[in-house]
Write a structure and sequence with these properties.
single chain, 365 residues, mainly beta, Methylamine Dehydrogenase, Chain H, four-stranded antiparallel beta sheet, 30 strands, 45% strand, Integrin_alpha_N
Length: 365
């Protein structure tokens, strides 16, 4: 069992965060919403820009670092449901000037955004989850020196509306990353720019998490899926099976049916034992008070995986204001230098840092 030291960094209600070296001083910082928090202690914060409040949300459903304009300073990729626009914010390279926000594309309602180097170029492509639009990705165009130009190429790989949920998983074991959506998967061709990708309608995942995670849960050599219900109760894994005729089938197993709003998932080796743990929790008031379980306590958890069995460990649990959930985009990375991955958890309950101090030390009696 692991022990975590919890810190409240801010009571601001932004739901996304990222961890990277904002000011190029060699020390990792934390970004969330309108501010970045200077490492290594994260007590000093700097303004990025105005992030519009829209109802009980903010116009920021992703914070991800990418040097878009090639000037050596990491910029931010963001977007949201309400303004329907994929954007990047330019890092000015100092602690005083505001970051200029630039539109990439009016692409439809963005649930959140994830990133994958789909073509092996060394720079991840941008994949917004746009439930009402066909799945697309955006490739940063670079110059002859490999530096970003501030321009993007849009590649539409789906034909029907994507639905809620998205993940990067090699479903058929051909070595190419496919795109999982809530009603099936898009098969990556040899050339990822050859569109549309073939769609395989093999399941119905409901209000699926972003991401849906691919992992061989039971060790049978076939890729399975780990799926949270982002706006309902339930955390499940879908076992891939091969039938006698060679076709795939999927069998759903329950991991945890006691919680709701499992919107974001990470798979990471939290205890450094060489095995991956599932890290997730409740996105507090994901649809404000409109989801099943919205008024239940919130929490942050990890699950050990052993041959198809999941064992739950509570990192934090309780009422909002006392406990923390995960927001729409939390982050897992070692911030203290002890080797153990820490957890940065944003949300409408505030921005928290959970410092992973490693296994609980037994007390001798």
């Amino acid at each position: 069992m692991l022990e975590f030291r919890k810190r409240l960094l801010s009571e601001d209600k932004y739901e996304a965060c990222a961890v990277f070296d904002v000011n190029n001083d060699g020390i990792t910082d934390i970004v969330s919403g309108a501010y970045w928090y200077e490492g290594p202690d994260f007590t000093r914060r700097h303004r990025i820009c105005e992030v519009e409040a829209i109802g009980e949300y903010h116009d920021d459903f992703s914070d991800y670092p990418m040097d878009v304009d090639g000037d050596g300073w990491p910029d931010l990729i963001t977007g949201s449901w309400f303004t329907e626009t994929l954007r990047w914010r330019r890092n000015p390279g100092n602690n005083t000037d505001e970051w200029e926000t630039n539109d990439i594309d009016r692409c439809g309602n963005i649930e959140t955004i994830r990133f994958c180097d789909i073509d092996g170029c060394g720079v991840p492509e941008i994949f917004p989850n746009t439930p009402n639009e066909p799945q697309a990705f955006y490739k940063l165009l670079r110059d002859s020196d490999g530096k970003g130009t501030g321009m993007f190429q849009k590649v539409v790989i789906g034909e029907a509306a994507s639905g809620h949920g998205m993940g990067f998983v090699d479903i058929n074991g051909d070595g190419r990353i496919d795109i999982v959506l809530n009603e099936g998967w898009l098969e990556q061709p040899e050339d990822p720019f050859h569109t549309p990708w073939t769609f395989h309608p093999e399941w119905s995942l409901g209000s699926a998490s972003v991401p849906v995670i691919g992992h061989d849960v039971n060790g049978d050599g076939l890729m399975d899926l780990i799926v949270g219900q982002a706006h309902d109760y339930g955390l499940h894994w879908y076992e891939q099976r091969k039938e006698a005729d060679g076709n795939r089938s999927w069998y759903r197993h329950t991991i945890d049916d006691t919680g709701s709003q499992f919107h974001d998932l990470w798979l990471v080796d939290l205890d450094l034992d060489g095995k991956l743990e599932l890290v997730t929790g409740k996105r507090y008031r994901a649809h404000n008070d409109g989801d099943p379980g919205a008024h239940d306590p919130i929490g942050l958890y990890y699950y050990r995986i052993d041959g198809g069995q999941f064992t739950k460990f509570i990192i934090d649990y309780g009422s909002a204001g006392e406990a923390s959930g995960t927001g729409i985009y939390f982050w897992v990375q070692d911030l203290t230098g002890n080797g153990y991955p820490d957890i940065v958890a944003p949300g409408k309950d505030g921005l928290y840092l959970f410092e992973n101090t490693g296994p609980v030390k037994e007390t001798l009696r």
